[in-house]
Design a protein that fits this description.
Blueprint: H1 2-75, H2 78-89, H3 96-111, H4 125-137, E1 142-149, E2 154-157, H5 170-176, E3 184-185, E4 189-191, E5 196-206, E6 213-222, H6 223-231, E7 234-235, E8 239-245, E9 250-252, H7 265-271, E10 277-283, E11 289-298, E12 314-319, H8 322-325, H9 327-373, H10 388-398, H11 401-429, E13 434-438, E14 444-447, H12 449-455, H13 459-463, H14 476-489, E15 491-499, E16 505-516, E17 523-532, H15 534-576, E18 581-586, E19 591-594, H16 605-608, H17 624-631, E20 636-643, E21 649-660, E22 666-675, H18 677-722, H19 727-756, E23 763-765, H20 767-784, E24 787-792, E25 800-802, H21 804-822, E26 826-835, E27 838-845, H22 875-885, E28 889-894, E29 900-907
Parallel strand pairs: 24-26
Antiparallel strand pairs: 1-2, 1-6, 3-5, 4-5, 5-6, 7-8, 8-9, 8-12, 10-11, 11-12, 13-14, 13-17, 15-16, 16-17, 18-19, 18-22, 20-21, 21-22, 23-25, 26-27, 27-29, 28-29
């Protein structure tokens, strides 16, 4: 007992030393890792929260800036500017008390109207309806829109639940700014009239000179619009963004109500810095302690009126529950603790093993001495200490050396037998082929894993079955005959079908051998290798079907060869008897074939074979330009001048197409040449007649268009010379005369543009961008006429070589024509696409359409179907000239009463194609 106690005391000391040496450095390194990871995680999360706060602030800035821009756009519309100007004129000739009395009178009438939800009859309904339509577009974001004049009195409103007079309110005075005008944005406040939190965005309405303020446009913005920008930020389960003012007042929070926040002065000081950043705060206003908070100021610009946002600034915050923020770190800490416990256990186990190895020899010698003293000579003592104890152990073990040697040899033989048994068992069980053994009754006595997996049975199921139990019904006699052959010949082969447990058939091929009893001669068992030949059977069936298909295809090829021969003869007759000259050229542009029609030019077929193509052309058509055109491996249509054998020049229209081989290489060209000499003579005569007629029409149109405004001007001059007109009437006559002169000036300018036909300055142009710029200029006309606009612009539309300004003029003419054709209520669809190597621009309207009898005249100069003063008739003519100078064309599809579609086609390649005018 005393020795045992000493041994255990030695073990504990060794174990404690090993644990201390291994655990102390590990603990120190884990603590440093935890501190560094916490700092890195905090910096990463802080930077992430800062970026999220900047994004939330940017969205709020964008929403408010967009509302200010829309308010400015609304303030620039002629409807509202005219309404505010007319309201200001009602104060003309009145002193200040009179003006205040008039405003109070209208304010009283506004308050005493019968229903607060309806507009009184003295409100301008036309402008009101225009404003209501504008409001309907943004009703989800706007509570209402109203306009006040230069005194703060209501001019028009999209909702009736507003006050009449705002002249004494601080926000209105800030916007008006003594007549200078500045945009104003209020703080978020609750308006009981609408039962919602709103934001007041106001901009001044300026005269056309942009200097004098004639009124104020105010948009009441819903808080939900800003709420969406803030609530879009989510981090995990508790992370979110909020918006507050620089004095610590919460404005928008998707988690807590404003009164549920506990914002401390320390938090306000930390997050109201001029730049975005992040901080760790003791209190984050949501109950979190030592939280990471990202912040970013909302910058609405320095152009707002003084007093905007109630003199405060907005700040976007991003926070998260610290428990969730540092959850990964806490999980890491848990893992570190678990790893520490594991390391402690490993060190403790290692120390225990080492201690036992040191104390074990003493214990072994003690036990060995006791066993030897008791007479157990077969006991083996193993001690390797290199001292006298080891020598004593060697002497102890020498007594049983022979016995140990005998037992060692026996164990080695047994191990070899077990190894071979495992080797062959593994070979059989994991063989890719199915292997089984049958007894003489045909019952399974062993089945390898492969066969069990293929058939889906368990080993217990298979050991209770016979071979004919797993074949389909009707095949049992084949199996019995196979077993009889096996017993008679000692080997056998058969192809049959096995059924799996779920009834699926498997085609198999069985090769079996029999093992007979040497003494008795009877069958002991049979061994069989079973191969799955299902795939082979399927392949054999496919080969048979493919062979049959090949035979059918051979018959088809023979029939097709006969048809091709007939077609060849037919085409040869067709080419030889064609009314046009048909020929082919090789890569060197020498004739390889020409039909007999060439005899009309005095040549024989034999004269041209091998001769250069250019030798037939006149000298002015043998230039480098034509040769380069022929070198292009693309279809071409062009006109050339061919010299007949007698030296006569013949005008010929040639259409050529490339001849390519199987690898798409150009081998030559095939051409069709049509003699158009007589046709061109007739065309020249007709063209001269048309030119004379067009000049007459152009002169008559110019005279008619200029005569109408000149007649009005002469009439006004006659009335002015009488001297009996009042000043107001004289101003009207002068304005009418000015309009007439401007119309004459416009006609002359368009006539000059039509006649000059200068070449465009081509550059790579984004057609989608040109359309967007034109739509900005025509937006007011679309809104004023209540026209719905739909854009279908191809995103990856390639750039084209075009004059951007000319194309803007063409698209402006087409869109304005569509607006005038609709006349209020309808739709315009503008789309772009790539079609047949060209950029196509469609302008489709749902207007009155163009009668079929007028389609051929719509591009004639001064031809118009519009009323007097609505158009000069030069817009489409000028547009067609511009497009044709770009190598393009304009297509028209229209039907009376069903709208019209104008399609502008511009070539994508830099070489402009010659295209005719089409409609």
């Amino acid at each position: 007992m005393k020795l045992w106690s000493r041994l255990h005391s030695l073990q504990r000391k060794i174990i404690a030393a090993i644990v201390m040496v291994g655990l102390l450095p590990l603990t120190f390194s884990l603590i440093l890792t935890y501190v560094e990871e916490r700092r890195a995680l905090r910096d990463t999360i802080g930077a992430n929260f800062k970026e999220l706060a900047v994004g939330a602030a940017s969205r709020v800035e964008m929403q408010v800036t967009r509302v200010i821009s829309e308010a400015r756009q609304l303030a620039s519309t002629p409807f509202l500017r005219t309404a505010a100007t007319e309201a200001n004129r009602s104060y003309a000739g009145k002193d200040e008390p009179g003006i205040q009395s008039m405003i109070k009178d209208w304010q009283q009438r506004w308050r005493e109207r019968e229903r607060r939800s309806e507009f009184p009859i003295f409100i301008n309904r036309i402008v009101t309806n225009h404003l209501i339509r504008w409001h309907d577009i943004r009703r989800a974001d706007y509570v209402g829109i109203f306009v006040t004049d230069s005194r703060g009195a209501l001019v028009v409103s999209s909702i009736p639940q507003v006050e009449y007079f705002y002249g004494k309110t601080a926000w209105w005075q800030a916007v008006f700014n003594g007549g200078r005008g500045q945009p104003y944005v209020s703080d978020l406040y609750f308006d009981p009239s609408f039962g919602a939190h709103v934001l007041n965005v106001s901009v001044p309405i300026l005269e056309e000179d942009q200097r004098t303020v004639v009124g104020v446009v105010t948009i009441l913005l819903r808080r939900d619009m800003l709420f969406q920008s803030i609530s879009a930020v989510t981090i995990g389960a508790t992370g979110h963004a909020m918006l507050m003012t620089s004095d610590g007042t919460p404005m928008i929070c998707p988690v807590l109500a404003p009164e549920g926040h506990a914002i401390t002065p320390a938090l306000v000081r930390e997050v109201t810095l001029p730049k975005a950043g992040w901080v760790v705060v003791p209190e984050d206003s949501h109950g979190g302690r030592n939280s990471i908070v990202g912040f970013s100021p909302v910058r609405l610009g320095d152009q707002l009126a003084p007093g905007s946002l109630e003199g405060k600034r907005w700040v976007a915050l991003v926070r998260q529950d610290p428990a969730e923020t540092f959850a990964p770190l806490n999980q890491l800490l848990g893992k570190v603790a678990a790893y520490g416990v594991l390391v402690f256990a490993v060190l403790w186990g290692t120390g225990t093993v080492v201690a036992r190895r040191l104390a074990r020899p003493i214990q072994v010698l003690h036990e060995g001495a006791q066993r030897i003293g008791a007479g157990s000579l077969d006991h083996q003592v193993t001690v390797q200490t290199g001292d006298e104890i080891e020598q004593l152990a060697v002497a102890f073990n020498g007594m049983a050396a022979n016995l140990k040697q005998s037992f060692g040899q026996l164990e080695r033989r047994m191990a070899e037998i077990r190894r071979l048994e495992e080797k062959y068992r593994d070979l059989i069980e994991n063989s890719p082929e199915m292997i089984h053994q049958l007894n003489k009754a045909g019952q399974f006595v062993h089945v390898n894993k492969t066969e069990l997996e293929k058939l889906g049975y368990s080993l217990e199921d298979m050991l209770g079955m016979r071979l004919w139990d797993i074949v389909p019904k009707g095949k049992e006699p084949e199996i019995l005959a196979y077993l009889e052959q096996l017993m008679a010949q000692g080997r056998g082969t058969i192809e049959t079908v096995f059924l799996t447990r779920d009834g699926q058939p498997i085609d198999v091929e069985i090769h079996a051998t029999a093992l007979f009893d040497i003494e008795g001669g009877g069958l002991v068992y049979s061994r069989a290798f079973v191969r799955d030949v299902t795939q082979r059977k399927l392949l054999e069936q496919k080969v048979q079907r493919y062979t049959a298909q090949l035979e059918e295809e051979v018959l088809k090829v023979r029939e097709r060869t006969r048809e091709i021969e007939e077609t060849k003869n037919y085409l040869e007759n067709l080419l030889e008897n064609a009314n046009d000259v048909i020929y082919t050229l090789d890569a060197d542009q020498r004739f390889t074939y020409v039909n007999s029609k060439v005899a009309t030019w005095g040549y024989r077929k034999e004269d041209l074979i091998g001769r250069p193509y250019l030798s037939l052309l006149s000298k002015r058509h043998r230039g480098r330009r034509l040769k380069s055109t022929l070198d292009i491996g693309a279809k071409q249509v062009y006109e050339v001048e061919v010299m007949s054998r007698t030296g006569e020049a013949r005008a010929v229209m040639v259409s050529v197409s490339p001849l390519r081989d199987a690898e798409d290489r150009v081998l030559g060209v095939m051409g069709i040449a049509r003699d158009i000499t007589e046709t061109k003579k007739l065309e020249r005569q007709i063209r001269n007649s048309e030119k004379l007629a067009s000049i007459g029409k152009l002169g008559a149109g110019v005279a008619h268009e200029i005569n109408n405004p000149l007649g009005g001007i002469l009439n006004c001059l006659y009335n002015l010379r009488k001297g009996t007109l009042p000043p107001a009437r004289q101003e009207e006559y002068l304005a009418s005369m000015e309009d007439g002169l401007r119309r004459v000036q416009k006609i002359v300018r368009q006539l000059l543009e039509f006649s000059q036909q200068h070449e465009p300055e081509l550059s790579l142009t984004d057609i989608n961008g040109v359309i967007e710029r034109v739509l900005v200029l025509t937006d007011h006309a679309l809104v004023a006429n209540r026209i719905r606009l739909e854009k279908r612009l191809q995103p990856d539309l390639p750039a084209v070589m075009a004059d951007r300004h000319m194309m803007e003029q063409v698209l402006m003419n087409l869109i304005l024509n569509a607006i005038q054709a609709i006349k209020g209520g309808g739709g315009i669809t503008i789309s772009t696409r790539v079609e047949e190597g060209a950029c196509a621009i469609d302008v489709q309207d749902t207007g009155c359409g163009i009668p079929s009898q007028l389609l051929s005249r719509i591009f004639d100069p001064f031809f118009t179907t519009k009323g007097v003063g609505e158009g000069t008739g030069l817009g489409l003519s000028v547009s067609l000239g511009i497009v044709e100078r770009h190598g393009g064309r304009i297509l028209v599809e229209s039907e009376a009463g069903k709208g019209a579609t104008f399609t502008v086609c511009l070539p994508l390649s830099r070489d402009r194609a010659t295209v005719g005018r089409a409609s």
